[in-house]
Amino acid sequence: MPRPKKPANPFRYFNSSPEVIRLVVMMYVRFPLSLRNVEDLLFERGIDICHETVRFWWNRFGPVFAADIRRQRVSRMRGFKHWNWHLDEMYVKIGGEMHYLWRAVDQEGEILESYVTKTRDKKAALAFIKKALKRHGRVETLTTDGLRSYGAAMDDLGNREKQEIGRWANNRVENSHLPFRRRERAMLRFRQMKSLQKFASVHASLHNHFASGRHLIDRQTFKLHRSVALAEWQSLAA
Predict the structure, then answer these.
(1) How many whole angstroms from its chain centre is CA 12?
(2) What is the pLDDT of residues 177-191, one digit of tens each?
(3) Whole-model pTM?
């Protein structure tokens, strides 16, 4: 019986160590830093790389790390019985034209799905909700704003009774936009829909991984959670 093949090492063609690559990707995606900010911060720590190397590494390894995080979290979260989602769309300008970044967030503030479209009509809302449900499974309630595209899409899916609309009921997802907005300003906006979709998905996974809710727990618990998150990050794609 043939032995199962080991997955190829994603770092096999790179001279830099995996630890440095993970650090670069984490710094650029997680924090509102420019490519040259990351280059300067690493140079102060004795790591001499070009800002274009930072760009190449996050493009190459960001989706790999994000997929690994997402795979582990989705398998754990599918068993939730009382799952409440908050759906919303935010404006993102690309080349002078408005695009829409649809986002689904659960009751704990975890970003479940990010989806970019040129419109915010029924077709776009339906594709977004279908994608989220296919990946994460069943949900108890779907909280939205007053956009009629959500209702029309849910009528097609047959789950209109799960929709909830309230004046402040969707603050959970509205607040979750803020870290991405700060990151967008540091990047001086996006130039293509494809790059926006890619970065939004990677940023969401890293934000979920390192978000510890420090305002809800004591200092010792926060330090423990932070250490566990860093240890898991160092093991990605190992």
Answers:
(1) 26
(2) 999 999 999 888 899
(3) 0.89
Question: Where in the sequence of the chain do the CATH 3.30.420.10 domains occur?
Answer: 77-210
CATH topology of domain 77-210: Nucleotidyltransferase; domain 5 (3.30.420)
pLDDT of amino acid 79 = 63
Beta bridge partners of 99: 92
What distance in Å separates the CA atoms of residue 22 and residue 171, rounded to the nearest whole number? 33
- The alpha carbons of the chain give a radius of gyration, in whole angstroms, of 19
Q: Which of 3, 4, 2, 47 is nearest to 27 (CA)?
A: 47
Tokens of 232: 């898991």
Closest CA to 52 of 33, 62, 39, 65: 39
Residue 138: predicted pLDDT: 84
Low-confidence ranges of the chain (pLDDT < 70): 1-7, 78-81, 238
* 3-state secondary structure (DSSP) of residue 115: strand
Separation CA 89–CA 66 (nearest Å) = 21
DSSP 18-48: HHHHHHHHHHHHHSS--HHHHHHHHHHTT--
